[in-house]
C-alpha cells in the first residue's frame, strides 16, 4: 500500500495553484505546507483528503522524466470535472475523459499534463 508520493516541480507557487484547482473535483485540497527551513532543503505542499496529505510537490527543480500519477475518482462525472478543472488551471490535454477498454471494460479515465509535463490521471473503475 502506498502511503504517499511526491515529486519536484520547476515553479513551486505555479504548481501549487495548479494542483489546488485541478485536484479539487477529486476531493483533494491543500492539507499542509512545510518550509525549506523545516525540511532542511525545499518547501513542500501536501494535498489529500480527510486530513491526510498523500500527494506532495516540492522543490524548484524539474525532473528529467515526467511521472504518472493516477487518482481514483468516485464516478465518471468526477473524472470529467477533474479534466475540466485541470485544463482551466493551465494543464494540457493528454487524453480526454473516456473508456480505456484496453485496461478493462469499465476503465474510465482522463489524462492531463501539469505545467511541468507530469501525467496526472483521474480514473473511475465502476460501471456507469
Automatic annotation (TrEMBL):
Protein name: Glyoxalase
Cited Gene3D superfamilies: 2,3-Dihydroxybiphenyl 1,2-Dioxygenase, domain 1
Superkingdom of the source species: Bacteria
Domain VOC: 1-125
Annotated organism of origin: Bradyrhizobium macuxiense
InterPro entries hit by this protein: Glyas_Bleomycin-R_OHBP_Dase (IPR029068), Glyas_Fos-R_dOase_dom (IPR004360), VOC_core (IPR037523)
Amino acid at each position: 500500500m502506498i502511503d504517499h508520493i511526491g515529486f519536484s516541480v520547476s515553479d513551486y507557487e505555479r504548481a501549487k495553484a495548479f494542483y489546488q484547482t485541478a485536484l479539487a473535483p477529486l476531493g483533494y485540497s491543500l492539507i499542509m505546507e512545510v518550509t525549506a527551513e523545516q525540511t532542511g532543503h525545499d518547501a513542500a505542499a501536501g494535498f489529500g483528503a480527510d486530513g491526510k496529505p498523500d500527494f506532495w510537490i516540492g522543490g524548484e527543480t524539474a525532473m528529467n522524466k515526467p511521472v504518472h500519477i493516477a487518482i481514483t475518482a468516485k464516478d465518471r462525472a468526477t473524472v470529467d470535472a477533474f479534466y475540466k478543472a485541470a485544463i482551466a488551471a493551465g494543464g494540457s490535454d493528454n487524453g480526454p475523459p473516456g473508456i480505456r477498454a484496453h485496461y478493462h471494460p469499465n476503465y474510465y479515465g482522463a489524462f492531463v499534463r501539469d505545467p511541468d509535463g507530469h501525467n496526472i490521471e483521474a480514473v473511475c473503475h465502476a460501471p456507469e
